[in-house]
Amino acid sequence: MGLSANLAQFSLLIAVNALIGGTLGQERTVLPLLAERTFHLIGYTFLLTYVLAFGITKAATNYLAGHWADRFGRKPVLVAGWLIALPVPLMLIWAPNWGWVVAANVLLGINQGLTWSTTVIMNIDLAGAARRGRMMGLIEAAGYSGLALTAMATGHLAARYGLRPTPFLLGAAYIIVGLGLSVSVVRETMEHTRLEAAQHKPRADGRHDHLHAELTHRQIFTHTSLREPALSAASQAGLVNNLKDGLAWGLFPILFAAAGLSVSGIGMLAALYPAVWGIGQLFTGALSDRWGRKRLITVGMLTQAGALSLIALADTFAVWGVAAALLGAGTALVYPILLAVIGDVAHPAWRARAVGVYRLWRDGGFAVGAIVSGLVADRWGLRAAVWAVAAITTASGLIVAARMYETHTRPDQSAAEQTP
What we know:
Elements: H1 7-28, H2 30-37, H3 44-47, H4 49-72, H5 74-85, H6 88-94, H7 98-127, H8 132-161, H9 166-184, H10 190-199, H11 217-227, H12 229-258, H13 263-291, H14 294-313, H15 317-332, H16 335-345, H17 351-380, H18 382-403, H19 415-418
Helix pairs in contact: 1-7, 1-8, 1-9, 4-5, 4-7, 4-17, 5-7, 5-9, 6-7, 6-9, 7-8, 8-9, 8-13, 8-16, 11-12, 11-17, 12-13, 12-16, 12-17, 12-18, 13-15, 13-16, 14-15, 14-18, 16-17, 17-18
């Protein structure tokens, strides 16, 4: 187990996850503009139906991916996810009405739920406990760097060649390459999980003694969602993080366009936030292995809230650029570390299913964000929607500070240090 023993597979999974992120990034800049300029949609709530469809589908598929990964193996689930994605770019290119776009996002949600969840689970399988934060940072950084670069690239392609079809051809290429790599080179990782389960040692403070290997599906869901303090705090923080991302995905391009920004300028802002997020995770995951998880998550949620407040106040490219970078930095402090928390607490025997439950709640945030931000924007305007999400994000950070305990323990820690 660990990086040195599995360097080839780590590198491959990082490349595959970059392609997964790029598959999602093909929509990031172009689709909100397509909704407004090609389909002439009226009302922000209706416009955000594609985010809602994506979020609900991805959240449900995340849960199933964890269960299926334990039942059928990791690799078959990964390959199935890529096969589901094959029609998506073509549907977006040829969509005669908005219903086609929503249907494409249902398929995209299934693709992202199966592929991204599986690469995360496989990465956790290979990583071992000592450097779990670093490995989560690497895999998530790859995905969101791919998303950011693709969002920027599609913005430039759309400015030069139009909103369709050229930007979506890039996504089609990602899907073909990702499927080929997953079928031919990726290998199964379940044996690593069995090895870790055989070597599993309980915490010195006894906190996880009730989280044994024989939990039922219902108990895993209940512990991850509500009962276990660290798991449930991580789940709500993940939901709020993606609630914010649903707002950024669906409404930020329209907010920037209303201020007179060009398509390429909107693409740069749409890319800056996930770019900082992606690159930042290279450092924040490893930092959590050294400093612990809880403090960084709390700071990250509050930083996101401050960045959203700045976006609501600003009206120039420069200030929005600073705010987007802060939003990315705050997200980088949260995103991979929440997954590391799940890996810290969940027993190896049911960890994949716990990851599925966590990602169910986390990506359910896309749907909640689409509903909340759409309704608020329709009633009170775009900036009011940003303010509302900033307030929710602040509350989430305070919940983490109050409820989560430190989950990362080192061999040199005493039992007293491990107790919150």
